[in-house]
Design brief:
Blueprint: H1 2-19, H2 26-33, E1 75-84, E2 87-92, E3 95-100, E4 112-120, E5 130-134
Parallel strand pairs: 3-5
Antiparallel strand pairs: 1-2, 1-4, 2-3, 4-5
Keywords: Signal
Protein name: Secreted protein
Length: about 140
């Protein structure tokens, strides 16, 4: 029984020691404290109980199983359109959206369409609250 308790104690100590971060070498800490660009840079130090993780390699951009969308899901809007000057405006629930990159004359005024795209800046001179850059289907 006594040998079992000693073995358990040693196992607990080894487990605790394995969870501690490895000490940094003087050369790596000196490099971190004197950045070459002159700007102050610091890296956050892990908490004493934190486990180190090896980052997984980035997924390929062409991998359909692991797509990377860095700006969020696209917006899908449906409503009637009208041409206002150089802008095509879509009305949805009383809100006016300028459709950026949608060619003028492609649709008739009053026609109901569905568009998919990302938020954009409202072009100057457009009578709209918001804007969306339309992506082709």
């Amino acid at each position: 029984m006594r040998n079992s308790l000693i073995a358990l104690g040693v196992l607990v100590l080894v487990s605790i020691a394995a969870c501690r971060p490895a000490p940094q070498s003087p050369s790596s800490s000196a490099a971190a404290s004197s950045p070459s660009s002159g700007a102050a840079m610091s890296t956050p130090s892990p908490s004493p109980g934190a486990h180190r993780r090896t980052p997984s390699p980035p997924a390929s951009r062409s991998d359909p199983e692991q797509p990377q969308d860095r700006v969020g899901a696209p917006i899908v809007l449906t409503g009637p359109i009208e041409t206002s000057g150089e802008c095509v405006v879509l009305t949805v629930d009383g809100h006016r959206w300028a459709l950026v990159r949608l060619p003028l004359g492609q649709f008739a005024d009053g026609e109901t369409i569905t568009v998919r795209g990302r938020p954009a800046a409202v072009p100057p001179g457009c009578d709209a609250e918001w804007a969306i850059t339309v992506h082709p289907r």
